[in-house]
Amino acid sequence: MAADDYYRLLGVSRSADAKEIQRAYRKLARKYHPDVNKDAGAEDRFKQISEAYHVLADPDSRAQYDRFGPEFRQYAGAEREYASQTRAGAAGGGGGTRARPGPSGFTWSSAQGSTGPGGASVDWGDLFGDVFGSMRGIDHEATLELTVEEAFRGGDRTVVVSGPDGDRQTFDIQIPPGVLDGQRMRVAGGGGTGRQDGGAGDLIVTFRVRPGHRMRLDGKNIEMDLLISPWEAALGSSVSTRAPGGPITVRVPPGSSSGRRLRLKGQGMPQSGGKPGDLFAKVKIMVPPHLTDRERELFEQLRRDSAYDPRAAS
């Protein structure tokens, strides 16, 4: 990040005084706060301008930023000192209010005259009170990876979410059977703390169903590899195998080649209150890796007697 990026983010000159910086931040914060602006990217923009303000509002960190640029924190203990001051302020009472993590790891407090960067007084009520009043907390997001079998069955899982200040929260959630890739679950109250009488945000969990060695998800349909022998493929057979819902028997028609898809209707992903998906068994012919003498003899005989040429047939 170039040395003047924070100034450009706030739309002020490098010679701007503290009042100009505060006015610019108030204007942008009201515009991009995620509880007001639901546009894509608004929350990231809000975090960027909040970090820019916290750095430029403190004379010490601003001087370090002007001198060293984006790597200024490597040369100064400004961030550690700020975190230490914030924790000390919270431990000292702060008017009985509770500190909470904000954008870019900064700690916000709803206390009047709370301590900001470098000891500067920041009145959050004055900054947001007239515009927002009571505000709901920001939603947090998490991703949970599942196998096809786990998504099919559903059940209890634990999600661990790390906050911007390094704190870890654990949530026990109930996954519905048949959850699909990309589906989302809302855990009420699992997000950021609200302001004043505003309730907490929610935790939004996005499910990702990863393909397995033999199973893949296609919407609500499941495709699984069905491993069969050359003679089962040529002569036809009833093949027993295991699907996500348990053991099944698949009837393989005679003359089935690798890649043929056999449909088992309604045995895909279950859907609460809706039509389940289908299961597609994809034929995959497996040749014995090691032949007995008798097997070799029979294959040699088949090669001599058969007129079938798969390359000519294609």
Overview of this structure, please?
A four-stranded mixed sheet has the order 10-11-15-14. A three-stranded mixed sheet has the order 5-9-8. The protein has a two-stranded antiparallel sheet with strand order 1-2. It is elongated. The chain starts with a helix and ends with a helix. The chain has helices spanning 5-10, 18-32, 42-57, 59-68, 78-91, 124-128, 148-153, 230-235, 293-305, 310-313; strands spanning 100-101, 107-108, 114-115, 121-122, 140-146, 155-162, 168-175, 184-187, 203-209, 215-218, 221-228, 237-243, 246-252, 261-264, 279-285. The protein folds into three domains: 5-128, Helix Hairpins, CATH 1.10.287.110; 140-209, Urease metallochaperone UreE, N-terminal domain (HSP40/DNAj peptide-binding domain, Sandwich); 215-288, Urease metallochaperone UreE, N-terminal domain (HSP40/DNAj peptide-binding domain, Sandwich). By secondary structure, the chain is α+β, with helices and mostly antiparallel strands. Helices cover 30% and strands 25% of the residues. α2 packs antiparallel against α3 (42-57). Residues 76-87 and 92-127 have low confidence and may be disordered. It is built from ten helices and 15 strands. A hairpin with a 5-residue loop joins β6 and β7.
